[in-house]
Every structure is written in structure tokens, then in C-alpha cells.
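hiii, so i know i said id send this last week but things got crazy w the move. better late than never?? heres the sequnce for the chain we talked about at the cafe, plus the structure i predicted for it. fair warning i was half asleep when i ran it
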Amino acid sequence: MELFIYFCILILNILAVFLTYRFLGNDTEKKERWIFIIVGFAVMYMLVSIVYWLSTKNIDLGIAESTAKNLITFAFVPVNAIAVLPFLARSYCYLKMGRLQQDKFKNRIILLIAILVIVLIIEFFYFKNIQTGILNIINAK
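okay and structure toks below
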């Protein structure tokens, strides 16, 4: 079962990278595309890790803590990346081509940040719920 979960996480990551890569357009250099993707995923990883840490600050799972953290973090990083990075990439591409004005680009970034904050708040409570459920299962044994 764990292998299946890791396989699904891998597919989600590949999909997120592919979407972001394609949305950057053909006019963007490959090096710039990969820098955009790597930085985007690094930011998503840091945000999800911070939200996970905040939501599970008072919950001690013992041995299962690192496995649960890795599974949850690696599952939600590509989900957040799919929700935000392709649209940010397309807006960046349009800005570089001159099809999008600077102020409209800023407005899109503000909108994407607002969406990301809402998603992270939802994840905060979801992570807390998941950890409480895992703790109940461990205590029941």
C-alpha cells in the first residue's frame, strides 16, 4: 500500500512539473524554465513544511512522526504546485512577451497568493485532523 502511495505522489510531482514547464511557453529558455520550477517547488515545500509544523506542534506521534510528515508533505507539495505554479508560469510568460502589463501581473500574483493562503489554511486544519487520527490509532493499539 505504501508503494502505491509513493507511486501516486511521483505521478502528481511529474504532472506538476510538466504543467509548469508547458505553461512557461516555448519562448522561455530551458534553463530559466527549470530554475522557475525548482524555485517554485522549493517555496511550496517550505510553505507546506511550515504549515505542517504549525498544525502538529502539540501532537507527538513517536516513531510514526517522520513517516507521517514525509507522506503528508510530499503528497501536498505537488497539489499546491498544480494549483498555483502553472498559472503563475503562464502569467510570467505573458509578461515576458509583452502581452501582460506589469500592474495586471501584480494583481494576478496577489490573487494566486490569496488562493495559496486559503489552501494552506485548509491544509492546516486537515493536517491537524490527520495527525489526531493517527494518534488515536496508535493509542488504540
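btw Residues 102-140 form the longest helix (39 residues). thought thatd interest u
miss u guys!!
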